[in-house]
Amino acid sequence: MTTETKQPELVITRVLNAPRELVFKMWTEAEHVVRWWGPKGFEPLIKKLEFKPGGEFHYGMKGANGLEIWGKFIYRDIVEPEKIVYVNCFCDEDGNTTRSPFMPNWPLEILNTVTFEFEEGKTKLTIVAVPINATQEEMEVFRTNRTSMEQGFGGIFEKLEEYLATL
Prior knowledge:
Radius of gyration: 15 Å
Helix content: 25-40%
Number of helices: 4
Low-confidence stretches: 1-5
């Protein structure tokens, strides 16, 4: 389920058939993250995962054509197993923040709040993403690309569901 607004926030909700503690763990340990993070058709590359406030998740995604895209999370707040707050950005292989390789006016930083709610043996996962320190133009580019982001997260969550089913 997705909430559509004219605001720049992106809100995506998904109910996963797994306990909250397990779903939370999927976001916190490299051996799990590597199994599902990133769009379909891309191989995840994990350079660093320091799951703590101020820590960094530095990752890459390698496409079948050899294209590599790098990104990072800087964790701001973690409340186990309820919430993860992080700033996400594109970066180079060394972790230096860069512009999006696809859209030059994409915001440099996106604040993401991921919540994990227990719901009758399942987990309601909600992501709220909003640009920070962005220009009006960057905010508009983010807002107008909502459908693309929803599709991207949809594919990521399908991979997460498939992986959870193997555990």
